[in-house]
Amino acid sequence: MKDLGGPRLYSCFRCRNNVSRHDDIVSKDFQSGNNRAFLFSHAMNIVEGPKEDRNLITGLHTVADVFCSDCGELLGWKYLRAYEESQKYKEGKIILEKFKIIKDSW
Asked: Which first-to-last residue range defines the signal peptide (predicted)?
């Protein structure tokens, strides 16, 4: 029987490295290209790539791709800066693509 008292975690689909907690989900209503994505307030065991400006669906943002720290899989990106006032809430938060993460410890 699983321990229901511990945190519900998401892991890298490739190597099962823990990358975030279910409790850190800000929104499940995001898109990454044609794929569903989750917005997290925090992530762990990730490495940030170089920052770059990207024109996304919601406007121009400075972002850095995020990779699994164990296997190097690209998992999503981190919002470093939002240029539009209505998008400022995303700054410092992380997008993880749903198909790149799996539920672990549930």
From this structure: none
